[in-house]
Protein backbone atom coordinates (compact mmCIF):
# COMPACT_ATOMS: atom_id res chain seq x y z
CA UNK A 1 0.00 0.00 0.00
CA UNK A 2 1.43 3.47 -0.88
CA UNK A 3 2.93 5.36 2.08
CA UNK A 4 0.53 8.37 1.79
CA UNK A 5 -2.46 6.03 1.99
CA UNK A 6 -1.00 4.24 5.00
CA UNK A 7 -0.24 7.58 6.68
CA UNK A 8 -3.79 8.80 6.17
CA UNK A 9 -5.26 5.61 7.64
CA UNK A 10 -2.90 5.84 10.60
CA UNK A 11 -4.16 9.41 10.96
CA UNK A 12 -7.74 8.22 10.96
CA UNK A 13 -6.83 5.80 13.74
CA UNK A 14 -4.93 8.40 15.76
CA UNK A 15 -7.70 10.97 15.45
CA UNK A 16 -10.54 8.64 16.36
CA UNK A 17 -10.37 9.01 20.13
CA UNK A 18 -12.67 6.80 22.14
CA UNK A 19 -14.54 4.07 20.30
CA UNK A 20 -17.71 5.85 19.27
CA UNK A 21 -20.65 5.62 16.88
CA UNK A 22 -18.68 5.47 13.63
CA UNK A 23 -21.88 5.83 11.62
CA UNK A 24 -21.96 9.49 12.75
CA UNK A 25 -18.26 10.27 12.34
CA UNK A 26 -15.87 10.93 9.49
CA UNK A 27 -12.12 11.31 9.90
CA UNK A 28 -10.71 14.29 7.99
CA UNK A 29 -6.96 14.16 7.42
CA UNK A 30 -5.92 17.50 5.96
CA UNK A 31 -2.60 18.26 4.31
CA UNK A 32 -1.54 18.90 0.71
CA UNK A 33 -4.72 17.01 -0.16
CA UNK A 34 -7.49 15.82 2.17
CA UNK A 35 -8.86 12.37 2.91
CA UNK A 36 -12.32 11.70 4.37
CA UNK A 37 -12.67 8.26 5.97
CA UNK A 38 -15.85 6.72 7.34
CA UNK A 39 -16.47 3.21 8.65
CA UNK A 40 -19.53 1.03 8.98
CA UNK A 41 -20.47 -2.51 9.90
CA UNK A 42 -22.06 -3.06 6.49
CA UNK A 43 -20.65 -2.51 3.02
CA UNK A 44 -21.76 0.77 1.43
CA UNK A 45 -21.11 1.40 -2.25
CA UNK A 46 -21.08 5.18 -2.75
CA UNK A 47 -20.65 6.82 -6.18
CA UNK A 48 -17.44 8.84 -6.32
CA UNK A 49 -16.18 7.50 -2.97
CA UNK A 50 -13.57 4.75 -2.79
CA UNK A 51 -14.37 1.41 -1.22
CA UNK A 52 -15.86 -0.20 0.65
CA UNK A 53 -12.72 -1.93 1.94
CA UNK A 54 -13.17 -4.68 4.53
CA UNK A 55 -11.07 -4.46 7.72
CA UNK A 56 -8.86 -1.75 6.17
CA UNK A 57 -8.60 0.13 9.50
CA UNK A 58 -10.62 -1.78 12.11
CA UNK A 59 -11.38 -5.50 11.97
CA UNK A 60 -14.89 -6.30 10.69
CA UNK A 61 -15.59 -2.68 9.66
CA UNK A 62 -15.97 -1.48 6.08
CA UNK A 63 -14.04 1.66 5.09
CA UNK A 64 -15.31 4.30 2.67
CA UNK A 65 -12.73 6.87 1.61
CA UNK A 66 -13.54 10.19 -0.02
CA UNK A 67 -11.02 12.88 -0.77
CA UNK A 68 -10.06 16.22 -2.27
CA UNK A 69 -7.18 16.28 -4.73
CA UNK A 70 -5.73 19.62 -3.63
CA UNK A 71 -6.44 21.47 -0.37
CA UNK A 72 -3.30 22.71 1.36
CA UNK A 73 -1.67 22.77 -2.07
CA UNK A 74 -4.56 24.89 -3.38
CA UNK A 75 -4.35 27.38 -0.51
CA UNK A 76 -0.62 27.77 -1.15
CA UNK A 77 -1.19 28.14 -4.89
CA UNK A 78 -3.70 30.94 -4.38
CA UNK A 79 -1.64 32.96 -1.90
CA UNK A 80 1.70 32.40 -3.65
CA UNK A 81 0.19 33.57 -6.96
CA UNK A 82 -0.91 36.89 -5.44
CA UNK A 83 1.28 40.00 -6.01
CA UNK A 84 1.35 40.71 -2.24
CA UNK A 85 2.73 37.32 -1.30
CA UNK A 86 6.37 38.36 -0.89
CA UNK A 87 5.36 41.44 1.14
CA UNK A 88 3.27 39.42 3.60
CA UNK A 89 5.82 36.61 3.74
CA UNK A 90 8.51 39.11 4.76
CA UNK A 91 6.13 40.56 7.36
CA UNK A 92 5.48 37.08 8.75
CA UNK A 93 9.22 36.33 9.06
CA UNK A 94 9.81 39.66 10.82
CA UNK A 95 7.04 38.88 13.32
CA UNK A 96 8.13 35.28 13.84
CA UNK A 97 4.85 33.98 12.44
CA UNK A 98 3.63 31.91 9.51
CA UNK A 99 2.01 33.66 6.59
CA UNK A 100 -1.26 31.94 7.56
CA UNK A 101 -1.16 33.60 10.98
CA UNK A 102 -0.62 36.99 9.31
CA UNK A 103 -3.56 36.39 6.96
CA UNK A 104 -5.78 35.18 9.81
CA UNK A 105 -4.99 38.32 11.83
CA UNK A 106 -5.76 40.48 8.80
CA UNK A 107 -9.13 38.75 8.36
CA UNK A 108 -9.97 39.33 12.03
CA UNK A 109 -9.20 43.03 11.67
CA UNK A 110 -11.27 43.29 8.49
CA UNK A 111 -14.23 41.48 10.07
CA UNK A 112 -14.15 43.23 13.45
CA UNK A 113 -15.59 40.18 15.20
CA UNK A 114 -14.56 36.51 14.75
CA UNK A 115 -18.19 35.57 14.05
CA UNK A 116 -18.20 37.91 11.03
CA UNK A 117 -15.17 36.53 9.18
CA UNK A 118 -17.27 34.22 6.99
CA UNK A 119 -19.29 37.15 5.58
CA UNK A 120 -16.23 38.85 4.12
CA UNK A 121 -16.57 36.72 0.99
CA UNK A 122 -20.24 37.31 0.24
CA UNK A 123 -19.25 38.49 -3.26
CA UNK A 124 -16.35 36.07 -3.78
CA UNK A 125 -16.90 32.40 -4.61
CA UNK A 126 -14.67 29.54 -5.67
CA UNK A 127 -15.03 26.14 -7.31
CA UNK A 128 -11.93 24.42 -5.91
CA UNK A 129 -11.34 21.88 -8.70
CA UNK A 130 -7.93 23.27 -9.70
CA UNK A 131 -6.54 19.70 -9.73
CA UNK A 132 -9.73 17.93 -10.78
CA UNK A 133 -12.22 16.44 -8.32
CA UNK A 134 -11.66 13.15 -6.53
CA UNK A 135 -14.93 12.90 -4.59
CA UNK A 136 -17.77 12.78 -5.19
CA UNK A 137 -17.62 13.89 -8.84
CA UNK A 138 -14.62 11.63 -9.56
CA UNK A 139 -13.50 13.66 -12.57
CA UNK A 140 -9.80 14.52 -12.93
CA UNK A 141 -10.46 16.86 -15.88
CA UNK A 142 -12.48 19.42 -13.90
CA UNK A 143 -11.01 22.89 -13.45
CA UNK A 144 -11.35 25.61 -10.84
CA UNK A 145 -13.12 28.96 -10.79
CA UNK A 146 -12.73 32.11 -8.70
CA UNK A 147 -15.38 34.83 -9.11
CA UNK A 148 -15.83 38.31 -7.65
CA UNK A 149 -12.40 39.68 -8.54
CA UNK A 150 -11.61 43.39 -8.59
CA UNK A 151 -9.00 45.56 -10.27
CA UNK A 152 -6.93 45.79 -7.10
CA UNK A 153 -4.04 43.90 -5.52
CA UNK A 154 -3.80 44.68 -1.83
CA UNK A 155 -3.04 42.49 1.18
CA UNK A 156 -6.77 42.64 1.95
CA UNK A 157 -7.52 41.15 -1.49
CA UNK A 158 -5.04 38.37 -0.82
CA UNK A 159 -6.69 37.64 2.53
CA UNK A 160 -10.11 37.44 0.89
CA UNK A 161 -8.90 35.03 -1.79
CA UNK A 162 -7.28 32.92 0.94
CA UNK A 163 -10.55 32.85 2.89
CA UNK A 164 -12.62 32.04 -0.20
CA UNK A 165 -10.30 29.09 -0.86
CA UNK A 166 -10.72 27.73 2.67
CA UNK A 167 -14.49 28.10 2.38
CA UNK A 168 -14.59 26.33 -0.99
CA UNK A 169 -12.56 23.43 0.40
CA UNK A 170 -14.99 23.27 3.35
CA UNK A 171 -17.96 23.19 0.98
CA UNK A 172 -16.26 20.35 -0.90
CA UNK A 173 -16.12 18.46 2.39
CA UNK A 174 -19.82 19.22 2.88
CA UNK A 175 -20.52 17.72 -0.56
CA UNK A 176 -18.62 14.53 0.35
CA UNK A 177 -20.40 14.18 3.71
CA UNK A 178 -23.77 14.82 2.08
CA UNK A 179 -23.06 12.07 -0.47
CA UNK A 180 -22.04 9.65 2.26
CA UNK A 181 -25.15 10.45 4.30
CA UNK A 182 -27.35 9.75 1.27
CA UNK A 183 -25.89 6.24 1.23
CA UNK A 184 -26.55 5.26 4.85
CA UNK A 185 -24.27 7.30 7.09
CA UNK A 186 -25.58 9.92 9.55
CA UNK A 187 -22.40 11.98 9.85
CA UNK A 188 -22.60 15.00 12.14
CA UNK A 189 -19.08 14.96 13.59
CA UNK A 190 -15.67 15.37 11.97
CA UNK A 191 -12.54 13.94 13.61
CA UNK A 192 -9.90 16.31 12.24
CA UNK A 193 -6.14 15.89 12.03
CA UNK A 194 -3.24 16.85 9.80
CA UNK A 195 -1.41 20.08 9.06
CA UNK A 196 -4.40 22.00 7.71
CA UNK A 197 -6.38 21.43 10.88
CA UNK A 198 -3.81 23.39 12.92
CA UNK A 199 -5.20 26.53 11.27
CA UNK A 200 -8.09 27.85 13.44
CA UNK A 201 -9.89 29.56 10.55
CA UNK A 202 -9.67 26.39 8.45
CA UNK A 203 -11.24 24.43 11.32
CA UNK A 204 -13.94 26.99 12.18
CA UNK A 205 -15.06 27.46 8.58
CA UNK A 206 -15.28 23.70 8.12
CA UNK A 207 -17.59 23.54 11.14
CA UNK A 208 -19.65 26.44 9.78
CA UNK A 209 -19.85 25.11 6.21
CA UNK A 210 -20.69 21.50 7.10
CA UNK A 211 -22.78 22.06 10.23
CA UNK A 212 -20.65 19.40 11.95
CA UNK A 213 -18.77 19.53 15.22
CA UNK A 214 -15.01 19.42 14.61
CA UNK A 215 -13.13 17.28 17.14
CA UNK A 216 -9.37 17.86 17.35
CA UNK A 217 -7.20 15.20 19.01
CA UNK A 218 -5.11 16.12 22.02
CA UNK A 219 -2.08 14.76 20.15
CA UNK A 220 -1.64 16.96 17.07
CA UNK A 221 0.55 14.40 15.25
CA UNK A 222 -2.26 11.90 14.72
CA UNK A 223 -0.43 9.95 12.00
CA UNK A 224 2.42 9.17 14.41
CA UNK A 225 -0.03 8.28 17.17
CA UNK A 226 -1.97 5.95 14.86
CA UNK A 227 1.25 4.17 13.92
CA UNK A 228 2.13 3.85 17.61
CA UNK A 229 -1.29 2.35 18.36
CA UNK A 230 -0.77 -0.31 15.73
CA UNK A 231 2.66 -1.00 17.18
CA UNK A 232 1.27 -1.57 20.67
CA UNK A 233 -1.24 -4.09 19.33
CA UNK A 234 1.49 -5.87 17.36
CA UNK A 235 3.63 -5.98 20.51
CA UNK A 236 0.79 -7.38 22.60
CA UNK A 237 0.42 -4.35 24.87
CA UNK A 238 -3.25 -4.17 23.86
CA UNK A 239 -5.41 -6.99 22.56
CA UNK A 240 -7.13 -4.98 19.85
CA UNK A 241 -6.88 -1.72 17.93
CA UNK A 242 -10.15 -0.34 19.44
CA UNK A 243 -8.68 -0.96 22.91
CA UNK A 244 -5.49 0.90 21.96
CA UNK A 245 -7.50 3.76 20.45
CA UNK A 246 -9.55 4.14 23.61
CA UNK A 247 -6.49 4.15 25.86
CA UNK A 248 -4.11 6.29 23.82
CA UNK A 249 -6.22 8.98 22.12
CA UNK A 250 -8.24 11.80 23.65
CA UNK A 251 -10.18 14.76 22.29
CA UNK A 252 -8.27 17.99 22.91
CA UNK A 253 -10.72 20.55 21.53
CA UNK A 254 -14.21 20.75 20.04
CA UNK A 255 -15.15 23.45 17.52
CA UNK A 256 -18.83 23.89 16.67
CA UNK A 257 -20.75 25.95 14.08
CA UNK A 258 -21.06 29.55 15.22
CA UNK A 259 -24.58 30.91 14.55
CA UNK A 260 -27.80 30.16 12.69
CA UNK A 261 -27.13 33.25 10.59
CA UNK A 262 -23.83 31.75 9.42
CA UNK A 263 -25.63 28.48 8.63
CA UNK A 264 -28.03 30.34 6.34
CA UNK A 265 -25.10 32.16 4.75
CA UNK A 266 -23.31 28.90 4.00
CA UNK A 267 -26.49 27.34 2.68
CA UNK A 268 -26.52 30.14 0.07
CA UNK A 269 -22.81 29.74 -0.68
CA UNK A 270 -23.35 26.00 -1.12
CA UNK A 271 -26.00 26.69 -3.77
CA UNK A 272 -23.55 29.00 -5.55
CA UNK A 273 -20.87 26.27 -5.23
CA UNK A 274 -23.06 23.87 -7.22
CA UNK A 275 -24.14 26.53 -9.72
CA UNK A 276 -20.49 27.27 -10.53
CA UNK A 277 -20.10 23.61 -11.46
CA UNK A 278 -23.35 23.54 -13.45
CA UNK A 279 -22.37 26.68 -15.37
CA UNK A 280 -19.03 25.13 -16.25
CA UNK A 281 -20.76 22.00 -17.55
CA UNK A 282 -22.83 24.09 -19.99
CA UNK A 283 -19.66 24.68 -22.02
CA UNK A 284 -18.98 20.93 -22.18
CA UNK A 285 -22.29 19.91 -23.76
CA UNK A 286 -21.08 20.01 -27.36
CA UNK A 287 -17.45 19.22 -26.63
From TrEMBL:
Leader sequence residues: none
InterPro entries given in the database record: ATPase_NBD, FGGY_C
E.C. number(s) listed in UniProt: 2.7.1.16
Record flagged with keyword Transferase: yes
One biological process term in Gene Ontology: pentose metabolic process
PANTHER family: FGGY CARBOHYDRATE KINASE DOMAIN-CONTAINING PROTEIN, RIBULOKINASE
A Pfam family matched in the record: FGGY_C
Domain Carbohydrate kinase FGGY C-terminal residue range list: 27-235
Broad EC category: transferase
Top-level taxon: Bacteria
Single GO cellular component term: cytoplasm
Protein name according to UniProt: Ribulokinase
Molecular-function annotations in GO: D-ribulokinase activity; ribulokinase activity
Keywords from the named record: Kinase, Transferase
Amino acid sequence: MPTPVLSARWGATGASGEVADFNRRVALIGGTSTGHMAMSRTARFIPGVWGPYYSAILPEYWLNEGGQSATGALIDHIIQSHPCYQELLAQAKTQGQTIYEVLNALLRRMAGEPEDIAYLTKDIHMLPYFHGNRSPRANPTLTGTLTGLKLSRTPEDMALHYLATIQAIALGTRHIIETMNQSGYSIDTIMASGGGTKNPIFVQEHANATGCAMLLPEESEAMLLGGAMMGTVAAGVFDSLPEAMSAMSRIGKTVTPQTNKIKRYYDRKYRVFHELYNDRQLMQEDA
